[in-house]
Amino acid sequence: MNKVFFLTSINIIVLPILSNYLIQGSGFIYGNNGLAGLAFDYHISAIIAVIKGLFNTVAMIKGAAICIKFTRYYLIRFLCSA
Question: Most CB atoms within 10 A, among 35, 41, 58, 63?
Answer without folding.
Answer: 35
